[in-house]
Design a protein that fits this description.
This protein has helices at 52-66, 76-84, and strands spanning 7-9, 14-19, 22-32, 35-42, 70-73. By secondary structure, the protein is of the alpha+beta class. It has a five-stranded mixed β-sheet with strand order 1-2-3-4-5.
Length: 101
């Protein structure tokens, strides 16, 4: 696996990716010891349309897998990303549904 450029900011409950001095984030809620609900993706407007959101989500999913975690994709962007890259469904929790939140 390639080196991840994201940082898990546990104090703010978000993954962060800095690109050209601009911060993009994926916010999360810790559901339990093994599960994170990914709630919101935000990319600086100046970076939209340049694949930054997809790179951010891909790296978050790599982090999730490397740390043997699961996710609940509450964020529509994350949900669509997983539908477009179905191999990542392997990190989606089977213990929770989006309707549980």
């Amino acid at each position: 696996m390639k080196d991840l450029r994201i940082k898990n900011n546990t104090h703010r409950h978000q993954f962060e990716l800095e690109t050209d001095g601009k911060l993009s984030i994926v916010a999360y809620q810790q559901v339990d010891d093994e599960t994170m609900a990914l709630t919101h993706t935000e990319v600086d407007p100046a970076l939209e349309g340049h694949g930054v959101g997809s790179q951010l989500v891909d790296e978050v999913l790599q982090y999730i897998e490397e740390n043997k975690l699961k996710i609940v994709p509450l964020c529509p962007f994350v949900d669509v990303y997983i539908k477009r890259h179905p191999a990542w469904s392997r990190v989606v929790s089977t213990a929770y549904n989006t309707s549980d939140f």
